[in-house]
Write a structure and sequence with these properties.
heterodimer; A: alpha/beta; Heat Shock Protein 90; seven-stranded mixed β-sheet; 12 strands; B: 288 residues; alpha/beta; Transcription Regulator spoIIAA; seven-stranded parallel β-sheet; six-stranded mixed β-sheet
Chain lengths: 314, 288
């Protein structure tokens, strides 16, 4: 029997679904997926592999009507996920179908910095899709295995909270939460940091410095090349939009090489670099490319300046 | 087709076929020395020498062996000179096609007279300094480059004073396979190699406008253009976009662009930025 869980309204509905164990996970998601298929909605599931397979197997024949994406791949850097949803929404909306998504960006086993980024990502989803075409996105949160702070935070980032048996507005949620999260500082590194200042004529030197450091850290040639490109794009942004100068910082931390670019500019649109820029627009491409190519990209900006931190996992 | 020398040099390299050297000099002594080297290389190869412009003719006075006997060389036809006024008279107003016709005839004449080719030194700072002539000068450099590489026997040193404004110098320098200059002038070079264009060096946001300019002034063959980027050390988003816009302009004229020798990262960028929507560029594997 299929119980319609909600009356469909024409707006973006962003819901956190808390689950404990496989059976509960399926009890929450199967009706959501089947309800969507029943309504002839386009159902897209972005889950890490084991959960994706669990759901696919449980759906049986219905699975072939669902599009599955590996969240560990498309969302390895959470800064890429909104672009994936935006593309899906655009594709299905223009084909006259409503979109229904499942996305579990904050899955167990993710590193602390990634979970921090998932929180900002969840907040930015509201900013990105509120006011646009109506669609539903359900984000499963593993209550057994995620740190409590992460599941608690999900109450603040989703206007709706649910379990396999309940569905309620989340009182902790307030619109516009992304503004503070986007402005907030990133944790300072503990260990030794290499620092340098760059100006308009220093872009080639800056990218070479980053490449040389990345090589000396033992990163493979292909990652070095990516970081060199990222350095050029991000330092160029400082020159073009960040007051003409910036500071480069590089350090090693647990299992990662980190390069960070800081300048005095302000990124006014927190979605910059998350959405595929239109072909004819001039800006926004550098950060978009960096988001696509790098392991983890963290952007923070306020009237006190902008920081872009790029983490490469060993 | 000639295998040609290319790269950044600090001294005039040993003379080879199809040399096309841009020489940026700061003072007279540096120019005289470079001219002497370049001419001596041509003499050793059995080429006729042609000196264009008063500045080059002046430097002949400072020559030392084996090109010391200027009068003798001129008398036996191994050395010709052309003042800029004479050059204008011979070639007409500065038009790349007329330049090419003139140098083609002069090269053929040298070959007919038993020389192995024609080696030209031209001091063209004044042409470059004239904003009205600059674009045509860059176009001429492309044509000269293509002409040299065809096995015509033509080779050239284009000399420019270092006190030209930097943008101008960079424009003209970037279209030579060989560049000698006291400091970095252009981060990339675009030149003809065999039947393809080669882009070498690095291109970023601050040189991508120049890349767009020199690409658009390069001659595109109707049956397609091959751009070799195997020696391209670095290219950023702005550079990729300049390349894509050039390819789109050519595609609008039904000329296809194939890029060879690209890195996996460049192709990845092309995908991520969805540049295929601007222009249908084919990426081929580098030649072994």
């Amino acid at each position: 029997m299929i119980v319609p869980m909600t009356v469909s309204v024409d707006r973006f509905e962003h819901e956190a679904m808390f689950y404990r164990g496989d059976a509960d996970f399926l009890a929450g998601l199967l009706p959501f997926v089947r309800d969507g298929l029943e309504r002839d909605e386009a159902v897209v599931v972005a889950e890490p592999r084991p959960r994706l397979e669990l759901l696919r197997d449980a759906l049986g024949d219905d699975a072939c009507a669902v599009e599955f994406l590996d969240m560990a791949e498309i969302g390895a850097n959470p800064g890429r996920i909104i672009g994936v949803w935006a593309t899906a929404l655009d594709r299905h909306t223009s084909a006259g179908r409503r979109l229904r998504g499942i996305g579990e960006p904050a899955f167990p086993g993710r590193r602390t910095a990634e979970l921090v980024e998932c929180r900002l990502h969840e907040l930015l989803l509201n900013h990105a899709f509120d006011g646009g075409p109506g669609w539903r996105l359900l984000c499963p949160y593993d209550q057994e295995h995620l740190p409590r702070a992460v599941t608690q935070a999900a109450l603040h980032t989703h206007p709706v909270r649910s379990t396999s048996s309940t569905r309620l507005p989340s009182d902790a949620y307030a619109t516009g939460g992304h503004v503070a999260a986007f402005a907030e500082g990133l944790p300072e590194p503990d260990d030794a940091v290499l620092r340098g200042v760059y100006g308009p004529v220093d872009i080639p030197a800056t990218r070479r410095t980053v490449a040389q450091w990345a090589r000396s850290c033992g990163l493979p040639a292909e990652r070095v090349e990516v970081l060199e490109l990222a350095a050029s794009e991000l330092a160029t942004n400082s020159i073009r939009h960040g007051g003409g100068t910036g500071t480069l910082a590089m350090w090693l931390e647990n299992g990662a090489a980190v390069v960070q670019f800081t300048d005095a500019g302000t990124v006014t649109d927190p979605l910059t670099g998350r959405l595929s820029p239109p072909l004819d627009s001039e800006g926004g491409r550098g950060l978009y490319l960096v988001n696509q190519l790098c392991d983890l990209v963290q952007v923070r900006s306020s009237d006190r300046g902008t920081t872009v931190r790029v983490t490469t996992w060993f | 087709m000639e295998v040609r020398a290319h790269g950044l040099v600090t001294e005039v390299p040993g003379a080879g076929p199809a040399d096309h050297l841009c020489w940026v000099y700061e003072d007279d002594a540096a120019f005289d020395e470079a001219a002497r080297e370049f001419l001596a290389g041509g003499l050793a190869r059995g080429e006729r020498l042609l000196c264009v412009g008063e500045r080059v003719i002046d430097s002949l006075r400072a020559l030392t062996p084996p090109v010391a006997d200027v009068a003798g060389l001129i008398a036996r036809g191994a050395l010709e000179t052309l003042t800029l006024a004479e050059a204008y008279e011979a070639t007409g107003p500065f038009l790349p096609e007329q330049q090419l016709a003139y140098y083609d005839a002069a090269t053929r004449r040298a070959m007919d007279d038993g020389y192995r080719g024609l080696r030209v030194i031209a001091e063209v700072t004044d042409l470059a300094a004239d904003p009205a002539q600059r674009a045509e000068l860059v176009r001429w450099e492309h044509l000269a480059d293509e002409y040299a590489v065809q096995g015509s026997g033509f080779s050239a040193m284009c000399a420019y004073r270092a006190d030209l404004d930097k943008e101008t110098l960079a424009d003209v320098a970037s279209v030579h396979p060989l560049l000698g200059a006291p400091e970095e002038i252009s981060s990339f070079r675009l030149f003809v190699d065999g039947d393809r264009l080669t882009l070498a060096g690095s291109v970023d946001t601050f040189s991508s406008d120049r890349l767009a300019r020199v690409l658009s002034s390069a001659r595109a063959k109707d049956d397609g253009v091959v751009l070799d980027v195997a020696t391209l050390e670095f290219m950023d988003v702005a550079g990729c976009r300049a390349l894509a816009r050039w390819a789109a302009d050519l595609w609008a004229r039904s000329v296809a662009v194939e890029v060879t020798g690209s890195s996996a990262l460049l192709r990845r960028m092309w995908d991520v930025l969805d540049l295929a929507r601007l222009a249908p560029v084919t990426f081929a594997e580098a030649l072994a």
